[in-house]
């Protein structure tokens, strides 16, 4: 029978991997920066398993993601910055602080609140508490509105966070229709850059168009990452249908005109793919 391990066993395992005397050569070479790409990859693999409803693999992927946290904790302990226990303690304290509707007296074991808050009230409390936390950081040198929006986020997700943060100080459109007008304005500027043949301007205006589209998604309550991910999947399904028909024909791709391929695509749409 396989042994059942605990989080303490995982922390011990990590310390062995980083032990200069008999540890793993690869693990010993790593630092905070070098394992960031692996952390991002593991997070995406968790998201992918959930999206595919692949529950058997989700267990493994969550373990891989947890290992990333343990790795950072070991590096923190070695540099005397923090360790796993301080990570957990700070996290619990923050979550208790950010959920006064669950922990009304501000302690982990406080009795339940007398009244259940609405979703809007919970959101307002959350934003107020996060603002208080940001103000606390200002005293430590984080003084600008956008300073602590992580730069390593995927571009669409970071755009949303930048826009939300600016919105909290009143810098925002108050109507989705105005954002649509802005998108049309940016598209006109993109067309002009294309006509001028200025590739640097094209790239700049293309970014403006995408940023404005993210803004519209935010105003409409749509997560742009989720929207594009869904469109990617839809494209894969429909293109797969087109490819199946090309393969069944026995002809090469080059023997089909774009109109003929579009007909397959329209068939895929009609089938709800």
Low-confidence stretches: none
What's the number of domains?
3
CATH topology of the largest domain: Helix Hairpins
N-to-C SSE string, H for helix and E for strand: HHHHHHHHHHH
Polypeptide structure, described:
- By secondary structure, the chain is mostly helical.
- It has three domains: 132 residues, Helix Hairpins, CATH 1.10.287; 67 residues, Helix Hairpins; 39 residues, no CATH class.
- α7 crosses α9.
- The longest helix is centred in the last third of the chain and has 26 residues.
- It is extended.
Tags for this entry?
extended, 11 helices, Helix Hairpins, single chain, 273 residues, mainly alpha, 3 domains
């Amino acid at each position: 029978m396989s042994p059942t391990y605990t989080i303490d066993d995982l922390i011990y395992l990590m310390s062995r991997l980083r032990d200069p005397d008999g540890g793993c050569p690869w693990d010993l070479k790593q630092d905070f920066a070098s394992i960031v790409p692996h952390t991002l990859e593991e997070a995406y693999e968790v998201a992918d398993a959930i999206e595919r409803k692949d529950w058997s693999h989700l267990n493994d992927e969550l373990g891989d993601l947890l290992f990333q946290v343990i790795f950072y904790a070991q590096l923190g302990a070695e540099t005397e910055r923090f360790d796993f226990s301080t990570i957990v303690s700070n996290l619990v304290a923050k979550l208790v602080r950010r959920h006064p509707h669950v922990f009304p007296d501000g302690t982990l074991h406080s009795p339940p609140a007398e009244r259940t808050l609405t979703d809007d009230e919970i959101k307002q409390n959350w934003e107020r508490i996060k603002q208080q936390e940001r103000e606390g950081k200002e005293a430590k040198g984080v003084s600008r509105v956008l300073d602590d929006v992580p730069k390593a986020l995927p571009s669409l997700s970071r755009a949303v966070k930048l826009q939300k943060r600016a919105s909290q100080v009143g810098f925002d459109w108050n109507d989705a229709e105005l954002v649509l007008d802005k998108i049309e304005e940016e598209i006109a500027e993109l067309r002009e850059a294309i006509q001028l043949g200025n590739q640097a301007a094209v790239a700049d205006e293309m970014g403006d168009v995408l940023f404005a589209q993210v803004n519209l998604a935010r105003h409409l309550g749509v997560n742009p990452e989720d929207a594009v991910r869904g469109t990617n999947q839809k494209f894969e399904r429909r293109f797969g249908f087109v490819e199946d028909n090309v393969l069944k024909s026995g002809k090469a791709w080059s023997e089909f005109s774009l109109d003929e391929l579009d007909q397959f695509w329209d068939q895929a749409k009609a089938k709800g793919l």
